Structure formats: C-alpha cells, structure tokens
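Pasting two entries for a bug report.
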Amino acid sequence: MNFELTQEQQLIQQIARDFGKEQMEPYAVEIDRDSRYPAEAIKAMAELDFLGVFYPAKYGGVGADFISYILMLEEISRSCASTAAIVATHCILAAYPIFKWGSEAQKEKYLPAMCKGEKLGGFAFAEPGAAPASGLDKVVAILDGNDYVLNGKKYFVYNGGTADVYIVFALAQKDPAAGLEGMSAFIIDAATPGLFVSRHIPKMGLCGMPTTEMVFENARIPKKNLLGTEDQGYKILLHTQACASVSAAAQAVGISQTALDASVKYAKERVQFGGPIANLQAIQWMLAEMAANVHMARVATYQAAYLIMEGKPFTVEAAIARMFTAKAGVDVCNAAVQIHGGYGYGREMILERLFRDVKGTIIFESINEYPQKIIAENLLR
C-alpha cells in the first residue's frame, strides 16, 4: 500500500484544512459552549462538495475516493470535532447505506439532495433502557398493506431534530424474540406523521452535534422505503458500523493532532526553571510518545480506508483502527492536559474540549468494546 497522496487527495486535504482554520476554528469554542448546531459551516461545506466527496457524480457527488473523504474528515476534526461528527453521520451512517443497499429509485430520490447538502442525514439505532430490539420501547415495524407501521422509541439519534432523512432500524420480523437478527433498515423522512423528537440529549463532548430521543406513534412508512430486504437489517448495520469505525478513527486522529500541535507550541513557550519546559526530558518523552500514537493511529486509519477504497475486506482492519485510535486519542489528549498543567484543565484553552470530544468519537456509533469483539471473533473462528 502506497501512502503517498495523489494530487487530488492533497488538494482536498488542503482545502479542508484551510476551511477548518478560517471558518470553523474561530467558532469552535462557541459551538461547544452553547451546544449550537453549526448551520453556517455545514452549508459552506455543502458548497465545497464535502457532503458528497466520495459518491459518484451521477448521484450528485464529487467522485473522489474514500481516502479523500477520510482526509477531509480528519482535517475538519482538527478544528471542530462537533462539525466533523455531523458530517460523518450524514456521509456514512445515513447516505452510505442508501448508496450500498438502496434501490436505484431510492438512490435517485435521496442521494443527489444529500450530496448537495439540500437534505441532512441522521441515524437512529440505539433504544432507551436496553439493547435495540429487546426493550419495552423497542421500535417495531408491522406491515399493513403497502405501509409499515412503526411504534417505539429511539435514543441518542445522531443529527436528531436537524436531519431531513433518517436511517432507522426496527424489528420487522414476526418473531418477537428475533432480536438484532430480526431488524430491518428503513429510509424515513423527518416530516413523516407520527414521528417526532421528544427531547434533546445533552452530552459531555461533541456538543454541537444534535442528539435526541425520537418517538414513533403509528408512523406509516411506505413499503418502498425499506432498505434492502427485511432480512438484511443486521447485515446493513454491521457493515455500516465498520465504515463508521474508520470515520471515528479519522476524527480521533484529527483531534489528537491538534492536541499534539498545541502541546509542542506550549512546551516551547512556557518558561519554567530558567528555560522552556521543552528542554525538560520528561516533557520531551511525553511529546515523543504522543507523536508516535498519532502516527500509528493515522497509519491504521489510512490502511482501513485504503481497503474500503479498493473494495477489499476491511471489517477487522476497521475494528483495529477504531480500537487503537480510541486508546491513543485519550492518551494523547490526557498527556496534552498534563503538559499544559492548570492551564490545560481550565476552559480558557482548548485542551479540555479536545479531551471530551475524543471520548465522544470512541462511543460514536457503538459501544467501546465493539471492535474487540470483531477482532477476537476473527482470531478464534
């Protein structure tokens, strides 16, 4: 695998980096503090074609490769992780299942508007109080003529209340004990009668990305909005989660790079014991370990992205990238706070936000232990 970026990839990377510094970095503190949805930034990113960067031109996309998307997401994460999380939800958790499993009619109806930013995508999988498809409030889809009737609740819906279209997983099998294996995926418009947001859920980090609880009360979904077939829901979920793991890894790399850059700058400027703390061996070793973590996290992420781009099996590599970047990201941000001392703990600097945000990328689309399960099953089969 060649890690030398093409001219197109470098151009997309540079445009994303410049955009982040100029149009997002100045507002990142405000977005985090006020839990404000960055509408202006999302609109500007749509105008730059970031929301459809790796989708084919026939569906309104740019037609670039998956690595270009990962580079873009990493650069955006360096400036504002909340905005990157919104984009990742839209591109991978919402648009990608339609592109991968949707009918031609579904692709033509939804993807052009999503790639152009005319419709924002959301993702609804988790449910309150229990594992999906098992609790009292599980979302159940019952076929009634040409419609599915959905009832139940979804918890921690990504881009909830802001998205125009959602990918929703619901139990559609007649066997109530089918659990996850009985789930189906649906494309659901936000304006569907019987679908409403019951409350917004505040978070520790990634505060600018809206997360909500969503309620279905006899919401009628046309049968043609079923994604794939009824028996494909769990397969769609697992594949989508694997792609989302690479997105989450890219976000963690971007956040970690910002923490490293800030720590190097601070170590050169902070004078203590008669000189910059960068002269202290303890600080140098901490910086070296941070740099190694960022480097290896980036390599693991790019490798998984390369496999996706080439159409090769990538599930295990995606899990490895996500597992490693989860630990590396927390370690890097923790060390950055330590190097900055009391200043790092205070909210006047960005380190505490980076620490909260990197934790959010770890639990972004599934529990933290999800990648370990995937890796172990592959080793022991």
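Entry 2 (this is the one that rendered wrong in the viewer):
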Amino acid sequence: MKKLLLNINILLCFLLLLNPSNIAGEENQNVLTMEELSIKIMPEFAYHPNDDKKEHPPLLIGYQGTMRNLSEQPQKGQIKLPLPMEEKNFRIGYVADYSSDLSKVYEIEYIIDREKGTISWATSEEIQPNDVYKFVVEFYIDTIKVEKEKKTMSYHFKSFTDIGLFNVSFIEPLKAKKVKLNPAAEKKNTHIDEEGVHSYFIQGLKAGEEKVFTLTYEREEKTPTVEMMEKQEQQPMDTLENKKIPVILSIAAVSGIGLLAAGAFAILMKRKREKR
C-alpha cells in the first residue's frame, strides 16, 4: 500500500520572516515560532473545482498554522513551505492568511516551484511583536487505495520543528461504514460530541518526531460529501447525515472549500426556517 507522505521536515527552513534591518547579521534566525499546527484529513469530501474526470475518490487535506512573532520588530515578508507535489494528481485548492485581529481572511496569490516542491506567498499584513500569524493551505491528491467498497489511506507526518499543540483530525465522508483508525484515537483526545470526527491532540511535539496514521472504511456512495449536503436540503434535519453536517462544516472550515460550504449551508438553513 502506497503511503501518503507529507514529510515536511524542511518546513522549518522556509517558515521564516526576516527583519529587513537584520538580514546581514541574522539571516538564519527564526523570528516566528510554531505555536499550533492543525491538520484536517477529508477523504471523499469534495473534488477540486477544475477536476473533469471524477473516477477516483478525492482526498482533500487542509492545515492551519499559528505562528508568533518573537522579534521586537514588525515582520512582513515571504513564507515558503514544501508540499507533497510528487503525489498523484496534486492540486492546490486554497491559500489564505488572516488579519491581525482574525476578523478577515485574505485569499492570497502564491508561487509554485514544482522543481523544489514548494509554495510561497507574501504575508498580507505586518505581524506585530508578540502577535500571531495564521495561514491556511488546502490541497487535493488522489492517494486513496480502493478495493471494491473498501478504502484505505495512510498519512505520515514528521515534525519539522517543536510545535506547541499538534492536532490531526480525520473527518468521515457521509455514509461511510466500518471506519477504523490505527492507532485508535483515544476518547479523551477526540471531539466526543462530534459525529464522524476522529482527532488526535499532542501537546509539545518535538522536532523530528514522526506520527503515522492509517484510515480504512467502506463506502458504496460515490458522491462526495459536499455534493450530498447540497442534495439534502429537502430532508428532515433529524436524519443521521444532516446531524453530521454542522460538525463537518465546523471542522472543515480550516480549508477554503469548508468556508464556501459553510456559507452555502447557512443559506440552506435559512431557507428551511422560512418554509416552516
């Protein structure tokens, strides 16, 4: 079984914002620290908007980083990070960062370097001393192994630096059955009230530590979750699938598709209320 390798151990070298006044003497000094990294694994959630052929189950991965400016000066500059561009049918879906007060999300232009396997962009605003910088990246790949109704995927992460809080969440597609994760997520580390979400929370992940997860499930349904949500507008809200929808949206909002879907869901709920 081919593993999904998201080994981004060189990310530390790229997640730097340099104080222009100190470039000559402090080129290698990190002024940002990774306080939190949250990764969402969303099998069969949505196809990329530009996908023409939809024969293979899609895999959407989004992660959100929270970094803090440890320098004494405001920082604004380039951020560059590697992505698994060697994986089958890799496509960028959405890249954005947040305003300093977290009230705005900026969809930003980015540069892809296929040879180096990196994506880079300029921060939308200056990051003030001791303030946080949040970014969102989502991408699609086709690495889910299919054996009739059974689907299997593996996710491998090697920590690129010390991370204050590391979170990985697997979000079940609607109508998935016999879902298994190895290692199993402990209940105390999961969103226990959230149907279809399996999360791992690790406090103080050290540089060089590796985590490997394997997900298996069965699913006859070919329609991705987002499309199913659109079709469920006329169904009663107490169905199992509809109970999962708000949870999926809240978790998937780390990605652009999640934000768009959340807007669509709000419209659907408004329509339902108007019909009552």
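Dev reply: Rendering is fixed now. As a check, the viewer should reflect this: Residues 18 and 31 are 7 Å apart (CA to CA).
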